[in-house]
Amino acid sequence: MKITEWLGENNQLGVDIWERKYRYNNESFDQWIERVSGGNTDIADIIRQRKFLFGGRILANRGLEKDGRKISLSNCYVIAPPEDNIESIFECAKKLARTYSYGGGCGVDISKLSPQGAKVNNAAKETSGAVSFMDLYSMVTGLIGQNGRRGALMISLSCEHPDLEEFINIKSDLNRVTKANISIRITDKFMAAVKLRKPFTLTFTRQETGETIAKEIDAYTFFHKICEMNWDYAEPGMLFWDRINNWNLLSCDDEFEYAGTNPCAEEPLPAGGSCLLGSINLSEFVTENKLFDFESFKDCVSKAVIALNEVLDEGLPLHPLKEQRQSVYDWRQIGLGIFGLADMLIKMEITYGSAEAVELCDMIGHVMANEALKTSALLSKEHGSYPKYSQKAVEQSAFYSKNALGDTRNLVESFGLHNSQLLTIAPTGSLSTMLGVSGGIEPIFANYYTRKTESLKGHDEYYKVYTPIVKKYMLAHDIKDDKDLPKFFTTAQDLNYQNRIEMQSIWQKHIDASISSTVNVPQNFTVEQVENLYMLAWEKGLKGVTIFRDGCKRAGILTTSSTKQDISTEEASQKLSRGMIIRADDNCVGRKRTLYTGCGTLHCEAFFDPDTGELLETYFSKGGTGGCNNFMIGLSRMVSLAARGGIDIYSIVDQLRSSGTCPSYAVRTATKHDTSKGSSCPVAIGNALMEMYKEVQEDIGDGEDTSTAIIAKTSSPKKVTLKTVTFKCPECGEPVNFEGGCMTCPNCGWTKCD
Questions:
Q1: CA 261, CA 333: separation in Å to the nearest integer?
Q2: For 36-60, how does the pLDDT look when each residue is reduced to its tens digit (9 = 90+)?
Q3: Distance (Å, rounded) from C-alpha 615 to C-alpha 635?
Q4: Phi and psi torsions of 383, nearest 5°
Q5: H/E element holding 568?
Q6: Rounded distance, CA 460 to CA 218, Å?
Q7: Which CATH class name applies to 589-709?
Q8: What is the pLDDT of residue 740?
Q9: pLDDT in tens, 374-411
Q10: DSSP secondary structure letters along 319-374
Q11: Where are the domains of the chain?
């Protein structure tokens, strides 16, 4: 079999993803299958049938340890929460760095750290607070992620911590904690106080001194702040911690404790725990009669559980830290999930979110859970239970009681379980895009997206690229316009959020870990509606949920002062085309800064569009003392090209700030104490550009006359009217979708999560 046969003759995007992400050393497709399956013919078969795929880390790296590669097969880990002392805090940073170096993402909870103002017996006298150390962990993530796979980090905090308000607000400062997602551990007690509009006490007791810090808050006011920040920045997320603790196989095991979640939040894990992922493609189980093939599905679930256990054993020596190897050995957690749900429903002509869809998903989920438990029990018969297994604890768990049927219970009673955690629904951005199906439990994002082609007529032309399942249906039924599609073609853009929550809730009944999932809501969605959505998610038993509002500040960290306004069709059509380079207008708004660096003075000029405030051009030049002026000229030209090519200033500044530390900069800081904010010339430039950008944005927002700041330019005029509210792919410049807990580009396959 060739890769084009597997992915489809016209699926060049899928081929590109496979070659770029998963193929090793020019291996053939059959060689890749042999490596990835570990020689297991059953697994090789279901991969060839497109019914199952391992997580991306396994697809890319399984078997490479034979070549001396030190790469984890696990996507992510949870680091032991740092204790309330400086040694443990920095030891945690060390563990993060080592884990990133092996390709794993991390989750870390900081709830054990003292709140701001707590008394300490050192020079500071009082602590700077738990939140202050988030910058350290974010910085480590950025540093280690510069080569190879970018680091991924989730930082969480208990809703009972006195630093809660600072934690909520930290993402409003776009210069802080740029390399981490953040989530709040929300308790039932807190949500009940919100619902009843009652006060809630934040409290922390230091073990070292016995000092207790308490603060009474209005629960609803804080909940509103969380929702407002989520409306604006899509963070912080909410982890419904009591549901996480109470709905799993270990909920009654006194020896077990969750330490946090992985970056995409679908895997709550103990300290040192890792997520080993694989997903079943539901769209391949629909028969010609538009029925779901349960027998074939059960067989696939069983084979997939066996396969993930094989990878777990192979990967045991490849975990970066001793505590990770021990945790994986003790608890043997795997994460089998699904994708292609929306495609399955369309093939069966069932509307996503309907009562019929919910009923069907309930049946599939129950079969999946029971079969996974049965297979784990049979593996336990052959290889033994996981070392920490407690039969009494498992049998008392509510999840087990709900999902294990009679024959499975008999097997578990006789042989125990080989795994303490079995099921999760992870982001499948790259996998689903490669196969051309929907991700996770998400509805299809849209019926089509727009792609540009350069015509022979000398101008760009745009055409619709239909989602594969949409295209196939339109061809089969001779439909010319997607407006004529039947109603069961429901997209994320038009789905009622209540139906969306209902779908996730029914799957969560049968998933012992959690679900990485996104509720996409329109730009005019209100903060009050966000509140209602989160309240409904809690009431329906979700373990967590991500809300992404179209046009929020995270959607571009690229948006202008017009973000909260409705964008007209005319304005939307003015988006920057792929490959287009804007020429700066004569009437640019200019700003200047003189910076003091390790090599002397550095002159920095920036020019912005007067209508949108977007960066267009930069000039950097060194003063007369030291440094390489040619380098600065080259850097300014590249920054200008990126800006006029449609890359937003936040992405540009993010790259500049990731350039590291310069020794001469540190020396001057220590001796002359006059260096500009930063640790090297690129970092200082990035900080200066952001300051100037914010000044211009404020001027535009306040309606002030900026004519006095205008600096004439000589380039050919072309007025920029670009107003965008979408995040653009850093690889191809096209808009991306936010679904399944991650960003995915439908044009080139880039993802930010897996």
A1: 13
A2: 999 999 999 999 999 999 999 999 9
A3: 15
A4: -120, -5
A5: none
A6: 55
A7: alpha beta
A8: 60
A9: 999 999 999 999 999 999 999 999 999 999 999 999 99
A10: -SSHHHHHHHHHH-EEEEEEE-HHHHHHHTT--TTSHHHHHHHHHHHHHHHHHHHH
A11: 108-235, 448-484, 589-709
Q: What's the pLDDT score for residue 66?
A: 78
Q: Which residue type sits at 177?
A: V
Calpha distance 623→78 (Å, rounded): 48
Strands 105-109 and 76-78: parallel
Residue 322's CB: how many other CB atoms inside 10 A?
A: 9
Q: Please give the helix or strand (H or E) that residue 53 lies within, else none.
A: strand 52-54
Per the listing, tokens 């808050």 go with 217
Give Cβ neighbours of residue 209 (< 8 Å, ≥ 6 apart): 119
d(CA 546, CA 238): 8
Phi, psi (rounded to 5 degrees) for 692: -65, -40
Q: Tell the residue number behind the tokens 């697809």, with chain if given.
A: 59
Indicate whether this model's pTM tops 0.85.
Answer: no
**Cα-to-chain-centroid distance, residue 42:** 32
Residues 6+ apart with CB under 8 A from 518: 442, 545, 546, 547, 548, 738, 739, 740, 741
Strand extents, DSSP E, 584-665: 589-597, 600-608, 615-622
Nearest to 648 by CA among 690, 589, 588, 585: 690
Report pLDDT digits (tens) over 233-261.
888 999 999 999 999 999 999 999 999 99
Of residues 134, 81, 144, 78, the one with CA closest to residue 106: 78
Which residues touch 151 (CB under 8 Å, ≥6 apart)?
96, 100, 105, 106, 140, 141, 142, 144, 145, 179
Other CB atoms within a 10 A radius of the CB of residue 430 amount to 27
pLDDT of residue 388: 97
Helix pair angle (497-508, 527-539), 10° resolution: 20
**Quick one: tokens of 289?**
């009669």
Torsion of CA 427, 429, 430, 435, to 10 degrees: 110
CA distance 167 to 158: 10
Nearest of 104, 101, 179 to residue 136 by alpha carbon = 179
With the CA atoms of 493, 498, 501 and 507 taken in that order, what torsion angle do they form, in degrees rounded to the nearest 10? Answer: -110
